[in-house]
Amino acid sequence: MLSPKKRPAQPRSAQWVLVAPESLTDLPKKVEDGPVFTRLHNPCTGEAALYLFNRPAQQLLEVKAFHEECHSWFIGQTVQHDGRLLFATPVDPLFLILHYIIKAEKEQGKFQPLDQVVVDPEFPNCVMLLLNTEVRKSLHHVTEEKEISGNKFYKFSKEKTLKWLKKKVDQTVTALKNSSVSVGDRVLSATFITRDHASSIKEEDYVRYAHGLISEYIPKDLSEDLSKHLQLPELSTPTPEPPLKKQKLSDGPVQAEEDYTKFNTVDLKTKKTNSKMTAAQKALAKVDKSGMKSISSFFGAKNKAAK
Known about the structure:
Blueprint: E1 17-19, E2 36-41, E3 48-53, E4 60-66, E5 73-75, E6 78-80, E7 85-90, H1 93-107, H2 114-117, H3 133-138, E8 143-148, E9 151-156, H4 158-178, H5 195-200, H6 203-214, H7 220-229, H8 279-306
Parallel strand pairs: 1-7
Antiparallel strand pairs: 2-3, 3-4, 4-7, 5-6, 8-9
Helix pairs in contact: 4-6
Pfam families: RNase_H2-Ydr279, Ydr279_N
Main location: nucleus
Family: Belongs to the RNase H2 subunit B family.
């Protein structure tokens, strides 16, 4: 008897669920003209990060992932085991150019052409940053420029950079106010924001919050210089708050602080009271029992009235 032939294993297709601007959904006729995923230096940490260029590299988007364990996607007739949810949001490419300009200042400390500054053997696709037409127009915000025989040379300017970053902070503050984003010592849900809390928010709270957002795209030492440039006072040690019963959302699964599985199999109506109960516990049990009777009689009366 012939044994049945085993079907060859189907290769898993690499697919992800990506939330991106609508402009990226209009795919071109040729695949090579479509969006490009690439790894570049994170301008804050210097580590590798995932980015997305549209064609022809006129828009740069950073890609971040929300990941939960034991999560998959059903895409068409397939199950994608990589259950991450990717978000692609626009980012100013000048932040990534600034990483190379600061590096060149520390290593060379002289004027250089831009194509010699933005060079990275580890991430060769960094040259795509130079294809953006707005990059060269905005370089004067962070550099000193010289032109010799029609060629431009650039050198990092901390003074100009801090002024440019302050404008970014001011724009972010305006956006926070217009969007009614809660800022301050303790961020609250927009559903529970009171008028007193909204009126108690100071301008400094908005500036500090915006500074924190901008600091995610610049090195730490530059972030500290920006804080001084904004004249932000140093934060005092906050008063410790009592731990919240309900845990905050995180990328990982929420862990229950109590063992709720004990309610799965125990019949609360037939559960016997412990014979070693204290007098206080017995009194509480009587109150609970009388309370349960009053509640049950109330719902019984409502049911009879409904009939």
